[in-house]
Design a protein that fits this description.
This protein has 612 residues and is α/β, with parallel strands linked by helices. The chain has 18 helices and 25 strands. The chain folds into three domains: 244 residues, 4-Layer Sandwich (Glutamine Phosphoribosylpyrophosphate, subunit 1, domain 1); 198 residues, Rossmann fold (3-Layer(aba) Sandwich), CATH 3.40.50.10490; 141 residues, Glucose-6-phosphate isomerase like protein, domain 1 (Rossmann fold, 3-Layer(aba) Sandwich). Helix 3 packs across helix 4 and helix 16 packs parallel to helix 18. It is globular. Bound molecules: 2-deoxy-2-amino glucitol-6-phosphate (AGP). Keywords: Aminotransferase, Cytoplasm, Glutamine amidotransferase, Repeat, Transferase. Catalyzes the first step in hexosamine metabolism, converting fructose-6P into glucosamine-6P using glutamine as a nitrogen source. This is Glutamine--fructose-6-phosphate aminotransferase [isomerizing].
């Protein structure tokens, strides 16, 4: 979602702001803007805004020869008000400029109060209320830093903000609560941004702000306080994120790069079990043995692709660890009456660790007294990771494409480890089974690499059905969530309408949709449900439907008119969903290429969904 970059340095910071915004493009946005302070003579704000890409903003900056030593910049993903130049940030209130990521829930109330005081609003955004409120505060609190703190005290909701003022041109103020923000300590100045990738161009030294922090950036230093003004020290970290990790390299798209990075990402995530030996529950944290031993039920909360990972894990946890498991969409769980159970292990899964609904669902579960919590997340310093008793950080590396790929397979690897740890602590894993499962996990990177070799055939399939308007995905058992994930991938990047069903449900309704215009994609591993699935496929064939079947080494399904079969290199037992999803990722990717859609930045979507 929205991204923020702030800079104050002994150099022209305009290129830094623009490059920072480019690095935040993956978060999803529809407009961009920046404001700088010209400090020669009377300080003066200069603002540029553009609907569409950062490139448009960069062209405006070039054309105007913009240069300055202090500035704030923003990519906006519309929440309040349509994507337009008028609604793009920064928002200005007489000499003050504000950029904001998040949602101010009481903005209507603030807006009416400010309008009553004579403030004129020129946008439909909640952010403009922050700018005018700050302006109003400055009338009674002349110090900018203190006035920002007083303004924040009146905001309800989530924010990361950056502020510049003509009356105080030697510092930029930033703050966060609920939305991510970190500081960068450079050789020639100080910076802030929504994520590290935006700052690697100038520094690796970063300071992660905590919720409620307010910071002042000057040319000669910075300070951080709580919102009430109490000074706080925040650790300086050296980011290990490599600049290459966020570069495209030889690939056409980040999604393609990330699909092909999966063997490496899985290898990194499973590094702790690479050296032989057994599964150690402490992989999840020092208290894992105690917490897992007292776990009678598992509740998994997540959104989107991460929710699908949870659905696969339910099959594993119930069949291997013999612990009852439910999986719920976070945005539903947080608003319903449920029966809290302190013996439940609450597992939240999130690539970004920022997803507002998942974070809120976790906090809600904790408020109900469920304090045995575990985060499976790809971002170690994220809000979600900080909220849980236990954590497992997947090592997928930065995922830039909006469509989640390597984050999903590494989440599944982490959930497989969780299953084994739960089973072991609760005495449900024999030494023999443990060794067998671990051997499979260790071999996973090689097995995934072999699936990637199927790309040319999958590309051929994608060519055939990219012209279709709808598609059905079928799976059974633990491959039903993989069908769901295949359908989600296809719709989000190719805009082909796709639905997934457990194959046994076909004749209870969706079969009515099947004709030659409806490609049906089936996930058909050689498991105990294969014969049942074959009957379901016959039902499709008999109605003239065209079938694309992802079988595997042991699934004997004959190729025939209208039935296309692709065999996965091996049958992979319990971990088979991890192999099958890779082929569906490739299918969506190639369908999107044929359709010419924006693969990495699909319309209307954001990478980090930091609003409800
Ligand atoms: C998947 O391709 C998505 N872009 C989306 O469903 C995503 O998985 C969801 O928004 C949850 O994000 P998270 O894992 O960062 O919490």
């Amino acid at each position: 979602m929205c991204g923020i970059v702030t800079a104050i340095a002994r150099r022209n910071i305009v290129p830094v702001l623009l490059e920072g915004l480019r690095k935040l493009e993956y978060r999803g946005y529809d407009s961009a803007g920046l404001a700088v302070l010209k400090t020669e003579g009377t300080p003066q704000l200069q603002r540029l805004r553009a609907v569409g890409r950062v490139a448009e903003l960069a062209a405006q900056a070039d054309a105007t020869g913009l240069s300055a030593e202090i500035g704030i910049a923003h990519t906006r993903w519309a929440t309040h008000g349509v994507p337009s130049e008028r609604n793009a940030h920064p928002h200005i209130s007489a000499g003050l400029a504000v950029v904001h990521n998040g949602i101010i829930e009481n903005f209507e109330e603030l807006r009416s109060g400010l309008q009553a005081k004579g403030y004129k609003f020129t946008s439909e955004t909640d952010t403009e209320a922050i700018a005018h409120l700050l302006h109003d505060k400055l009338k009674s609190i002349p110090d900018l830093f203190d006035a920002v703190r007083a303004t924040l005290a009146e905001l309800v909701g989530a924010y990361a903000i950056g502020v510049l003022s003509e009356t105080d041109p030697n510092r930029a103020i930033v703050a966060r609560k609920g939305s991510p923000l970190l500081l960068g300590i450079g050789e020639d100045g100080y910076y802030a941004a929504s994520d590290t990738a935006a700052l690697l161009q100038v520094t690796r030294k970063v300071v992660y702000l905590e919720d409620g922090d307010v910071a002042e950036l000057r040319l000669d230093g910075y300070r951080v306080t709580l919102q009430d003004g109490t000074p706080v020290e925040r650790a300086v970290n050296i980011s290990s994120l490599s600049a290459d990790a966020v570069e495209l390299g030889k690939y056409r798209h980040y999604m393609q790069k990330e699909i092909f990075e999966q063997p490496q990402a899985l290898g990194n995530t499973l590094e702790m079990i690479a050296g032989g030996g057994g599964i150690s529950p402490q992989l999840f944290g020092a208290d894992a043995v105690g917490i897992f031993g007292a776990t009678r039920r598992v509740l998994i909360l997540a959104c989107g692709t991460s929710y699908h990972a949870g659905l696969v894990a339910r099959y594993w946890i119930e069949s291997v660890a013999k612990i009852s498991c439910t999986v719920e969409i976070a945005s539903e769980y947080r608003y319903r009456d449920s029966v809290p159970d302190p013996e439940t292990l609450v597992v939240v899964i999130s690539q970004s660790g920022e997803t507002a609904d998942t974070l809120a669902a976790l906090k809600f579960a904790k408020s109900l007294g469920m304090n045995k919590t575990l985060a499976i997340c790809n971002v170690p310093e994220s809000a979600i990771v900080r909220e849980t008793a236990l954590r497992f950080v997947t090592r997928a590396g930065p995922e830039i494409g909006v469509a989640s790929t390597k984050a999903f397979t590494t989440q599944l690897a982490a959930l497989a480890l969780l299953t084994l740890a739960l089973a072991k602590v609760n005495g449900r894993l024999s030494d023999e089974d443990e060794a067998m499962h671990l051997a499979h996990l260790r071999h996973l990177p090689v097995a995934v690499a072999k699936v990637l070799e199927l790309e040319p055939e999958i590309e051929g399939w994608a060519q055939r059905f990219a012209s279709k308007h709808h598609a059905l995905f079928l799976g059974r058992g633990m491959h039903y969530p993989i069908a769901l994930e295949g359908a989600l991938k296809l719709k989000e990047i190719s805009y082909i309408h796709a639905e997934a069903y457990p194959a046994g449900e076909l004749k209870h309704g969706p079969l009515a949709l099947v004709d030659k215009e409806m490609p049906v994609i089936a996930v058909a591993p050689a498991d105990s449900l294969l014969e049942k699935l074959k009957s379901n496929l016959q039902e499709v064939k008999a109605r003239g439907g065209e079938l694309y079947v992802f079988a595997d080494a042991g699934s004997e399904i004959p190729q025939s008119e209208g039935v296309h079969i692709l065999h996965m290199p091996e049958h992979y037992g319990l971990l088979s969903p991890i192999l099958h999803v890779v082929s569906l990722q490739l299918l969506s990717y190639h369908a999107a290429l044929v359709k010419g859609t924006d693969v990495d930045k699909p319309r209307n979507l954001a990478k980090s969904v930091t609003v409800e």
